[in-house]
Each structure stands twice: as C-alpha cells, then as structure tokens.
Design brief:
The chain is an alpha/beta fold. The chain has helices spanning 25-40, 62-67, 72-90, 106-112, 138-141, 147-156, 162-168, 180-192, 196-208, 214-230, 233-242; strands at 2-6, 10-16, 22-23, 46-51, 59-60, 95-99, 102-104, 116-120, 124-126, 159-161, 173-175. The chain has a six-stranded mixed beta sheet, sandwiched between helices. The protein has a three-stranded mixed beta sheet with strand order 7-9-10. Strand 1 and strand 2 form a beta hairpin. The two termini are 29 Å apart.
Length: 245
C-alpha cells in the first residue's frame, strides 16, 4: 500500500491506497517524490503513472481531514496536491497516465498535467469539488474538455467518459481494462525509442509554450477553498460526505 516507483527506461509510479485510492497527505507528497526521483534518473525515458485497484484516484482522503482538529490536514493536503500535480508537469520526461475506473478530484489534477492519457473503456472523469465544499483542479480539467463543458462539470459535478475525452482528442487511446498497462507501456515504448536528449528538450519546450501557468492557476483556485473553510461551508460539505448524507 502507498506509492512506489518501479525504475527503468519506462519507469512506473504506482498509486495504491485501497479501497478507492483516496490519497492521504503523505500519499500526495510521495507521488511528488517518486515522480521527481524518476525524472532525475538519467536512465528514465518515460514515466507511466498508474494505480492499482478498481479506480485510478478518488481524490483527497476527506475522512483523514475530518478526523483532525483545525485545518492542518486541509492545508497539508492542498500543498501535497500542488506538489504532486507540479511534479507531473515538471517531470523532465513525458508522463503517461494510465487511467481505469474513476478519476475524480485530485486525480484530474494528475492526469490533466500528464503528457498523454491512455484510459480503460470503463474510465470516467469528474470534479466533485463543489459537493465537497472545495474548489480546485478546474485548471487541469480545462486541459481535458472544452471551456463550457468544464464549467458545467464544475457546477453540476457530472462526469464524462474516456470515450468522450477520446473524441475531444485529450485521451490518446481507449482500451479494454485488462489491457490498460500493456497499452500504456506500448505508447511509452514508442517514445522511449526516440533520442532521449531530444525528448527531454521537447518536454521543456512544450511546457514553455503553454498559455496557462498551471501551477499558479491551481494555487489561485485553492485560495477559494481556504475561503470556503473560513466561512464554514467547506467543513459542512465534508462532514455531510463522511456521514453519507
């Protein structure tokens, strides 16, 4: 259980927090650390970010927040998410997200910053932050869907399918769930076969021409999460979720 790195030319960073991959504070920081370690290894040519279990990521561990007094866990989770999302984006080699089942909340932050997404045919993507009394990762959702759909998804908390994102061109490939890891590694292999010096410079160049500073944009969103907690709306929504109301 946890986050572990399988090094190699095609490195794998694997998320494993049963039962639903709701990631605790330490887990987000570990994702950041493992991605940074993979990118720092000169032998690494591509990173596959994947997860064990029936879903890729259910977002932050809200129950961990509600078990704690005050806002320390909330603050730490926000910093952890920012670090993990940034580590995907800043990784000096391409990051391929392999997504199965549900990809929610913080999961959107991870895959939205990835270079490519390979998804299982059962994958769904959503940002239920409004129902959790929070805001954030619309920055990353905006990299996956058109602007008006992004707004609709934020306001209504609806999800979209891997097939939808494939039609938009933001999911590279949709495959049967049983073949997800193989498919992701096949795409990774095609990239790994290129000159690694050129690929690293290509990643740097592509980040440099992005029209939105994803790290700054996400931290701006997080400010509204802090505001919602100061006025009590955030805690009310989280407690309602924990109690199943």
């Amino acid at each position: 259980m946890g986050v572990h790195l399988e090094p190699g030319a095609i490195a794998e960073v694997v998320i494993d927090f049963p039962p639903v991959n709701a990631v605790p504070v330490a887990g987000w920081l570990s994702v950041a650390d493992q991605l940074t370690a993979a990118g720092a290894d000169p032998a690494t040519r591509v990173v596959v970010l994947r997860a064990e279990g029936r879903g890729f990521c259910a977002g932050v561990d809200i129950k961990e927040m509600q078990r704690s007094e005050g806002h320390q866990v909330l603050l730490a989770a926000n910093r952890g998410c920012a670090a993990a999302f940034a580590a995907v984006y800043d990784c000096p080699v391409p990051v391929i997200a392999a997504v199965q089942g549900f990809c929610l909340g913080g999961g959107i932050g991870l895959v939205g910053n990835a270079d490519l997404i390979v998804a299982a045919d059962d994958a769904t993507f959503g940002l239920p932050e409004v129902d959790r009394g929070a805001l954030g990762a619309a920055t990353h959702l905006a990299r996956l869907v058109p602007p008006q759909l992004m707004r609709a998804m934020v306001y209504t908390c609806r999800t979209v399918t891997a097939a939808d994102l494939h039609r938009f061109g933001t999911v590279h490939e949709v495959v049967p769930a049983a073949g997800l890891r193989v498919a992701a590694r096949a795409v990774a292999g095609a990239i790994a076969a290129k000159d690694p010096v050129v690929i690293r410079r290509a990643k740097e160049a592509l980040n440099g021409i992005d029209p939105v500073d994803v790290k700054r944009s996400y931290r701006f969103e997080q400010g509204f999460t802090f505001e919602l907690n100061l006025n009590g709306a955030g805690d009310r929504a989280r407690q309602k979720f924990v109690e199943g109301r």
